[in-house]
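In response to reviewer comment 3 from the previous cycle, which asked for concrete evidence that the modeling workflow produces usable outputs, we include below a single protein chain processed end to end. The sequence was submitted unchanged, and the resulting structure tokens are shown without manual editing.
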Amino acid sequence: MLKMKVCKPIKSKLVPANLQVITFTWTLKNIADGRFRVRLKPRGFEQLNGVHYDSTNISSPDTNASTIRIIMVLTIILDG
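The workflow returned the following structure tokens.
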């Protein structure tokens, strides 16, 4: 990951005293063709509401095409 410049390691002495570094864990999933799907997940029990995330503004960035189609159709029906 360092080669691809996705992230960079930091030293604990560079983190401000009022902040906490959240540790991560790797999740591996075996795909049918023998490869692995890898995800880097933060350990949620270390996160604090209001510091690391805002529980009042949680939204999913993922959607699927049928949801977008339904919203577009409803917009056309209700607007006209």
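The chain has a mean pLDDT of 77. We consider this sufficient to address the reviewer's concern, and the full set will be provided in the supplementary archive.
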